[in-house]
Design brief:
Layout: H1 3-17, H2 25-47, E1 54-59, E2 67-70, H3 80-92, H4 95-106, H5 121-136, H6 139-153, E3 156-157, E4 162-163, H7 170-173, E5 176-179, H8 182-194, H9 200-215, E6 226-229, E7 236-240, H10 252-269, H11 272-287, H12 311-325, H13 330-350, E8 364-367, E9 372-378, H14 379-396
Antiparallel strand pairs: 1-2, 1-9, 3-4, 5-6, 6-7, 8-9
Helix pairs in contact: 1-13, 2-3, 2-14, 3-4, 3-5, 3-14, 4-5, 5-6, 5-8, 8-9, 8-10, 10-11, 10-12, 12-13, 12-14
The protein binds glycine.
Length: about 400
């Protein structure tokens, strides 16, 4: 064992030995949620004059204004801002935030009426309309979700057993491609199957999760970003990366999507295979974290520690672990909750935008190999951060 591995193991054991009754989780969560409410109000006053068809995506290092992008079928991040508004409304009950959540959500309705462009339909529609329906019960929101689930299911290839994540990349990858991020979009299919959509969508989601488990992971529990298949025979061709350091590395956000995705699969199926798998890939992730619990963008970048972090991965994992801790009994579950709280503390103490920047969190990495969004504030980090805080608040009650 190297010194680094010993150090990481010590951190993991420290997280496991930290009991959740140290400090008050609800008070911790409320401190974070109050901060998020202030930042949400700042962002809203900054961007609302530009209109609801422009979506905040990122803030460059040192900047204090959101870069806005027109909503379009290509903008996979456009569901997160309405999702943040719904979560903030859930916490504050502020009617102006509700009005904004409705407007920004409504701007995305067109997604349910056009052919599926890629798998990100779940990110776009379930973060916006999904939260909107959960909080308001509006039938028109449900209709949009169910229609978008139909579109997402149209990308399923039964020969492979997965959704085609990026139709536009088939030629580039040399086949049907399925990426780790796609795990998150299964939630809309599971939900649709239970809420008036086609029941077989749950089978599609399970098949996708099972196939991803087989071909997007290595025996040590680390993940590949992409698996490529022959679209006709369904045969696996290769596994590789797109946004990670190398084909053999563990891209931090990819692993985070996996942890969140398999935890969610267990919520819908109660199949212990998903729970066991979520624990396994979580343990791999936790055992290799740096001391402050926020990963470098890729765990295997040889430039560590002089490379960018990914606060978004930490936020996704924190949210997932709060849920996972509720499914795992005893010390192990308590350890997951303690680890999530340490992640949230670290994000609050050292990664928050604060006065300088209206984002909740700074220091995420979007697509380092492409040279984009390196050390940026990115909207999805904020979405999973506020979600994690709400989950923690519920735990403390
Ligand atoms: N879904 C794309 C990403 O995680 O960057």
């Amino acid at each position: 064992m190297t010194r680094e591995v010993f150090a990481a193991a010590a951190i993991f054991i420290a997280a496991l030995s930290c009991t959740p009754d140290q400090g008050n989780p609800a008070a911790e969560a409320e401190q974070g949620l109050d901060y998020c409410a202030r930042q949400t109000a700042r962002t809203l006053s900054q961007i609302r004059p530009a209109g609801y068809m422009l979506s905040p995506k990122n803030i460059a290092p040192g900047d204090s204004t959101w870069n806005l992008y027109p909503v379009s079928k290509e903008l996979w991040t456009e569901g997160f801002w309405p999702g943040i508004l719904w979560y903030d409304y859930e916490y504050t009950s502020d009617k102006d935030i509700l009005a904004a959540a409705e407007e920004y959500t409504g701007a995305l309705e067109f997604i349910s009426t056009i052919p599926a462009y890629d798998h990100d339909l779940g990110f776009v529609i379930f973060c916006s309309y999904g939260n909107g329906y959960r909080l308001t019960g509006k039938e028109e929101y449900k209709k949009v979700i169910l229609e978008t689930a139909d579109r997402l299911a149209s990308l399923y290839n039964p020969a492979v057993g997965t959704i085609l994540s990026w139709p536009r990349e088939v030629e580039n990858f040399g086949g049907h491609n399925t990426i780790m991020d796609n795990m998150i979009n299964l939630e809309m299919l599971f939900w649709a199957a239970e809420n008036g959509g086609r029941p077989e969508y749950a089978d599609i989601a399970r098949s996708h999760a099972d196939t991803t488990m087989k071909y997007n992971f290595r025996p040590d529990g680390t993940s590949y970003h992409v698996a490529v298949y022959d679209p006709a025979s369904g045969k696996h061709i290769r596994s590789c990366t797109h946004q990670g350091y190398s084909d053999d590395s563990m891209w931090a956000r990819g692993q985070a999507w996996g942890i969140y995705g398999y935890t969610m699969c267990y919520r819908y199926t109660h199949d212990s295979k998903y729970l066991d798998f979520a624990c396994r890939i979580t343990d791999t992730y936790l055992s290799r974290l740096p001391e402050d619990m926020v990963p470098y963008w890729d765990f295997d970048d040889p430039g560590i520690p002089d490379v960018s972090r990914d606060a978004s991965a930490a936020a996704v994992v924190a949210s997932a672990l709060i849920e996972l801790s509720g499914y795992v009994p005893g010390d192990k579950g308590a350890g997951y909750l303690a680890a999530a709280r340490k992640m949230l503390d670290s994000l609050y103490d050292n990664y928050r935008g604060g006065e300088a920047c209206p984002a909740f969190l700074m220091h995420s990495t979007g697509h380092r190999p492409a040279g984009t969004e390196i050390d940026y504030a990115i909207i999805y980090a904020d979405y999973y951060y506020i979600e994690a805080l709400l989950r923690l608040k519920d735990k403390g009650m």
